[in-house]
Each structure stands twice: as C-alpha cells, then as structure tokens.
Amino acid sequence: MNTSQFDGNAAFAGGGFMPSQTTQGANSPFTPSKIRDSQTLLPLTIKQANDAFQSSDGSNLTIDGVDVNTVTFVGRVCNKVDQITDSKFVLDDGTGTIECIKWIDDPVDSNEVDGILNGMYVRLYGQFKGLQGKKCINVYSLRPVTDFDEIANHFINCIYVHLYNSRLQRIQASIPNQQHVPSLTQITPTKGYQAQAVAANQFSGQHNNGQKTVEDMVLDVLHLPANRTRTEGCPLESIAQHLGLPSDKIMLAIHNLTQEGMIYEGLTNHYKSTVNG
User: What angle do CA 133, 135, 136 make, to 5 degrees?
Assistant: First the structure.
C-alpha cells in the first residue's frame, strides 16, 4: 500500500482560487513518442485516473464515459530518478499516486526536469496510458507550482468537469435514438466537457459571417508543421509576428484557448495545441 506524501496543509494554505488555467510503441506505455491524437485536455485527480477503465474497442481509457488521452494533474513529486534518456517519478495528489515518465530528447527537456525536485508541487501535462491494468503518464511538459491556490483551483476544475461529463452521460443514456433529436446531436460522451465547451461558441470576438476569430488564427499558427515539432511550444513572439495583431488580442485569445483546454503552456510564454491540426 502506498503512503501518500501529499501535504494537504500546504496545498490549501492559500486564500481563494483563480479562474481555470485549463484547461509509443505498441507494447509499452514508456516510449518517447510525442505524437498526440485529436483529443482535448482533461483535468483529473489521480484517483480518477486509477479508476479509469478500457473503452469497449480497447483503444482508449475512459472516465465518466469520455475517452481520455491528454490530461493535466497537479501534485507532489516523489521518488524521482533521473537517467540519461528519461526522468521517472511518482506523482501524489492526495487522492492516489501514479507513475510518470518524461523523456529527455533535447537540452530543453533536460533543463525542464533538472528544475524539478522531490517534494516539489508541479503542474504537468501528458498522455494517459494504460497497459495490463497499469496506469502511467507520458509527460509532455511540467513546471513547479508557485501559487498554491492553483492546487485548490485544479481540484475545483476536476469536480466541475466530472459533474459535467457525468450529466452528459446520463442525458446520452436517456436518449434512445439521438439522431432524431437535432438539438442534442453535439452531446457526445466520448467528447465530454472540453469539446462541448468549444462547440458553444464562447470565444470572444467570434463572428457569424464565416470570418476566422483570433483564437482560430492562433490555432492555425500552432498547427503549422514547424511549430508542431517544437517540444517546448511555440514562442509568443513568433505567434504575434506571424499574425501581425496587437499583443492584447493575442493574449486574450491564448487565455480563452487555455481555458477551453485547446492549448497549454510548455515553457514560459511558449504554447502547444492539445489537438491534431
């Protein structure tokens, strides 16, 4: 039995909470591939991850009826072991523990893991994998938590998304033949909260005449082949230079996309898309 090293007093020592920041080989989950499927980002607790089960076709893990691929956690690093090719550690968020691996492909990756120590609270993004009942996280990006309000905020996000997806699952189960109900055709359990939120046209500055929003344009830049291969993310200045728009509009679009789980921050002011462009 694992003994949790999560420090609840430290985690919830802050005041209020801030708005959401959300947001392979065939035989082994521990492989250096960074190819990502067309999945949206889900905030999870480790208990949710450990309770996930295999989808009916065996292709994905599912939580609350939603296929889970790209995830974000907040927790405490334990048992960190650095090697030349990778860094392995256990993440503990107070609800459970899960093994994580960050592959070292370049100096950027090495610098990232060198700044993480045992006992440190981190925010990480990665791919959720399962093989023969063993769950693990292939880490794309991680950073230290500098404001402990972020921990409480993360758990609130997890609760909200869990309730949202659970409700979608109940609605789906109550509709015997969904294709005959046009107003509910977008309620798809395999998409869940994030996909539904993006479909709701909640981005600021959105137009009804077919013109692209700033958010769409930012995603187009992040989906360029040269930017998709950047493991650290695309620099903010590169996005601004490519679009030629005022920085305040770009930052608002980035904030909206982060809120909806469409992008996440790799290095500081470097951004990556969570969907396949």
Answer: 150
